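BUG: 3D viewer hangs when loading the predicted structure for this chain

Environment: internal workstation, default settings.
Expected: structure renders.
Actual: progress bar stalls at 90%.

Input used:
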Amino acid sequence: MTDCSPDFARTAADYARHRAGFPPELLDRLAAMGVARPGARVVDLGTGTGSLARLFAQHGCEVTGVDIAAPLLEQARRLDREAGVEIAYVEGPAEATGLPEDGFDLVSAGQCWHWFDRPAAVREVARLLVSGGSAVIAHFDWLPIPGNVVEATEEIILRHTPSWPFADRVGLYPQWLVDLQTAGFTGIETFSFDTMVSYSHEAWVGRVRASAPIAGTLDADGVRACSLEMTAMLQERFAEDPLAVPHRVWAVTAQAARR
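Structure tokens produced before the viewer hung:
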């Protein structure tokens, strides 16, 4: 991660409890493309609590997850036990994993590529992959639409963390294609699809609390103040409970150069 990255270790419990993971349809699509297959050796960079890694494991892949935050990896192991899957975890940076060269069929990064030193990370992806192996960079983003709960939420986040750079995003990342092209990857393809995620009021407040600009950045008083403001906003403007929150899944796949 870059030096300005938030400290997700501070919010590991909320992250594991409240943050919706990637939907299984992502793996269905990757499998249909031939990118993910049972038995494939996978490294999931910036794995966090293992959301994407577990999907690969449930699909029959042999998965190793990498993250710099030990508390997130502790939560990942707990969630793995509950899901009945086994994943190996390595504590370390995405840019220098220490894993063997040419040792993996697929390297993934879910909801984290923007936190990395991207040129160094893409070189590490190429180093890890076997000749012709696959890379997957994926995101699962809430969508701010005029008048919806996400727009109102982002307004609160910006009041508490004005420097947060990720407000009003549309969940598309064409700049990652340039990262892959520059590193010599070919066969680059993208896809996206939208889905609704159900959140209770309590869970949505927890989801926001677990985010980078809140618990990943603010002190305890700031986190508490934001959560109180979120709770009041939901009660006043979005009484329906649970909420239906629009999200977008976006992914790019690419193949490493053949050696």
